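Lecture 7 notes: from sequence to structure.
We start with the chain below.
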Amino acid sequence: MPARRFVLDTPPSGTLAVLEKREAHHLIHVLRAEVGTEVELIDGRGRLWSARVGQISGNRVHLVEVSQLAETVDPKVRLTLVQALCKSDRLTWILQKATELEVSEIYLVQGRRSVVRISQDRSRAKLERWRTILVNAAKQCRRSTIPILHPPLECGEVCEAVGSDLKLLLQASPQAVPLKRLVRGKFWPSVAFAVGPEGGWTDGECEAFLRNGFQAVQLGRSTLRTETAATVATALLRYELFPEN
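Predicted structure tokens for the same chain:
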């Protein structure tokens, strides 16, 4: 069985490293690790090390025999998900699957029709929880990089922030081009795709996206839930654009 992975807050010092806080708690109290237990370490940016538990001291785990194994090569295409806020269980699913499918960056949008509204005093706690979901998903699927997650922004702010080579707006519209037809046989270094909330994007939001270089695409005749649309679009883009897969 492969060694369990943990995220380092601080890079190793030579052949030594330390796990603290949530990662140490999980290793000590959930996995019941002992001295000598083999683990793998990631920094969330692509570096991977092997190590052994050398000492458990309170809520800290001291690791020894730290040795770098590899540095992950990023996919040739950088995928950016622009996701409207939605219900907690659906957003959890989206964040997990986006991580598993190698999305590099995630922008959250406070859509006009989002059923969830994040107040300013709750945004920091929410962001921390969402980032924990990404970390756990990365460890579970044995990914060495963790997607960059941006705090919720308004539609116009996201439109200005996203600078991908190809920008796509998912729309359930007969005028929208099928996603597969648009990307098949082509290559872009970076692709962003925007997925609306349960009630869809408003006309004003669609206009803002299109005005900022997004192209309207659709996934088929069926109207998909937001978490289904996000996962299907990510999987299709990964299949069509990642030649190594």
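Points to note: The chain is about 35% helix and 30% strand. The mean pLDDT is 90.
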